[in-house]
Amino acid sequence: MLGEELPKLYDAEEHRSNSSQSFQARKNILLKTHGRPPWYDEDGLPVCDAFVIGIAGGSASGKTHVARQIVKSLGSVPTVVILSQDSFYKYHTEEEIALAHANRFDFDHPDALDMPMFAACLADLKACRQSNIPVYSFAEHQRLDETKYLYGASVIITEGIMALHDPSLRALYDLKVFVQCDSDLMLARRIQRDVKERGRSVEGVLEQYLRYVKPAFDNFVLPTSRYADIVVPGSNNSVAIDLISTHVRRQMNERARHFRKNMACTSIDKCLKPNDNHEDWNVIVLPQTPQLKGIYTTLRNEKTSRQDFIFFVDRLATFLAEKAMELLPYRDKVITTPTETAYSGKEPDVKHICGVSIIRSGGPLEKGLQRVLSDVAIGSLLVQSDAKTGEPLLLHVMLPKCIRHRRLAVDTWVFLLDAQIGTGASAFMAIRTLLDHGVQQDHIIFVTFLVAHNGGISVLHKAFPKVRIVCGAVDEGLRETWLEHYHSEGEGHHYGDGRKVWIVEPGMGQIGDRYYL
Questions:
Q1: pLDDT of the residue at 10
Q2: What b/e sequence results for 331-353 when a residue is b if at least 16 CB atoms lie within 10 Å of its CB, and e otherwise?
Q3: In CATH, which of 3.30.70.3400, 3.40.1000.10, 3.30.365.10, 3.40.50.300 is domain 3-255?
Q4: Contact 286, 471 (CB under 8 A)
Q5: Pick from 280, 232, 206: nearest CA to 73
Q6: pLDDT at residue 277 in the model
Q7: How do the domains of the chain map onto residue ranges?
Q8: Ranges for the Phosphoribosyltransferase domain (predicted)?
Q9: Angstrom distance (rounded) from CA 426 to CA 452
Q10: Pair 15, 7: CB distance under 8 Å
Q11: From CA 441, how far away is CA 416, in angstroms rounded?
Q12: Which pLDDT tens digit goes with each residue over 232-273?
């Protein structure tokens, strides 16, 4: 989730590019993103909702501009999204569409909006769950079948003329704002906007304004100003913007979670020991055969050539994927062989299955999974460490369709891929992300090359006891150290030109770097 605009939050193939939808997309997808910090505690449970701001005001009063200025003023506050009321117009009948094209349909009445859906989507986002936002076409005057996937916002700004009208919406806001603007200025802005961006005629805009917009403002919009915590002028509002952004930053600081160091286990009684029964921790270790030990010897050797390293990583990844496949449920299946003989066999008893790679160190496991499941969909998460706190930051989410829709995610099995589990911070955030999407905990199979027995595995198991981990080896230690000009794979944080890191020992070094560079 990098950059100010994030079109990858929804399906590119589902996005249509007509001018009215592009206008709506610009209102809905603006982000100021520096990575989502943890929103959960050491038990893996969400403990801080997203901070939600509701902005109401008359049509063309400057609500979207105020929202964008807040985003700009927030600076380093992570992952801010603007959600527009315009997405939630109801699905219209053919008769209503005909009236809309003739400027005879009242879009400014509260009944024109699907308030229950608006509140449900906002409630999901506030609770740190994903949501699929409807898409409305102003050119067609119709809600489309496609949706826009959205997840991971720590601050949500909702804007619309009826943003403060419905009690169910108001109950979700942490801060309520009303934008006050001169009626003549609002009319001038509306004419300019609708003619340029929505293909309307001046006559049609004026007729609709006098028939619907002005009465709706007087009867429904202006009265909601009494619910506002702050009234902001529609222009020359820099002081109000600064006050709002200062308040939001203070709230974000109070909600910050810091517990990564605690995940590096210091009590020997809580550590996974090399001679433990690993399966008591839901850790399944490959049989330590001479062949497997030979592979690890080659991979641990710093003098191994990159070509050999890639070859043996791919081979080991295949072993791990095959072992992970054993953890899926299977059902009986009878087939006919080429000799026309009936054979009673097995097949996976799953509706959906996919892989999710924690990039980039999870990338070396992808080829092994694809060798075992040739047509498997693989998504990705980018989790890196905050430069100051060392806490994990969720920077990028690109998940398969079977996870993005909760009705599908509940029946989806996920192979979660990462090179190693050291402190477990990246694994923790990745698992929490899948759970937020509706994936069942016992449907997550974590596939990794190495686990540090005195690292965060104990915290990980306590928080997510039903998640199973398939690994090739359990290493002895996790050491905190400092390396200059060091680029870790999610297991450290920067200070100047160096980085404090937690190194798995004896380990395999930086697996992603050795594989890709």
A1: 29
A2: eeeeeeeeeeeeeeeeeeeeebb
A3: 3.40.50.300
A4: yes
A5: 232
A6: 56
A7: 3-255, 267-516
A8: 287-480
A9: 14
A10: yes
A11: 12
A12: 998 888 999 999 999 999 998 888 777 666 665 544 345 555
Distance CA 36, CA 123 (A): 18
- Helix, strand, coil percentages for the chain (3-state, nearest 5): 40, 25, 35
pLDDT of amino acid 179: 95
Mean pLDDT, each 10-residue run in order, the chain (517 residues): 33 36 51 73 89 94 90 81 92 91 88 96 95 90 90 92 96 96 88 82 86 92 96 90 93 79 52 57 92 97 96 98 97 96 96 94 96 95 79 90 95 97 92 97 97 87 95 87 53 48 86 90
Q: Do the Cβ atoms of 358 and 383 come closer than 8 Å?
A: yes
Q: What is the reported pLDDT for 486?
A: 45
Residue 253, token pair as written in the block? 């600081």
Type of residue at 193: R
Q: Supply the pLDDT for residue 392.
A: 85
Contact 424, 459 (CB under 8 A): yes
Same fold: 3-255 with 267-516: yes
Pull the structure tokens for residue 437.
């999407």
**What's residue 494's pLDDT?**
41
81's tokens? 């999204």
- Cβ neighbors of 167 (< 8 A, separation 6 or more) are none
Rounded Cα gap, residues 148 and 57, in angstroms: 25
> Which residues neighbour 26 within 8 Å (Cβ) at sequence distance 6 or greater?
5
Q: CA of 499: how far to CAs of 66, 350, 386, 484, in Å? A: 39, 43, 11, 6
Instruction: Give Cα separations from 272 to 15, 100, 173, 446 (angstroms).
Output: 47, 66, 44, 16
Q: What is the pLDDT of residues 22-60, one digit of tens each?
A: 445 455 554 545 678 889 988 899 988 999 999 999 988
Per CATH, which fold does 267-516 belong to?
Rossmann fold (3.40.50)
Q: What is the DSSP string of 334-355?
A: EEE-TTS-EEEEEEE--SEEEE
Residue 498 pLDDT:
54
| Residues 14-53: b if buried by 16+ CB within 10 A, e if exposed | eeeeeebbebbbebbbbbbbbbbbbbbebebebebbbbbb
Residue with tokens 């690890």: 296
Could you say which DSSP state residue 49 is in? P
DSSP H/E element including 461: helix 457-463
For residue 162, what pLDDT is reported? 96
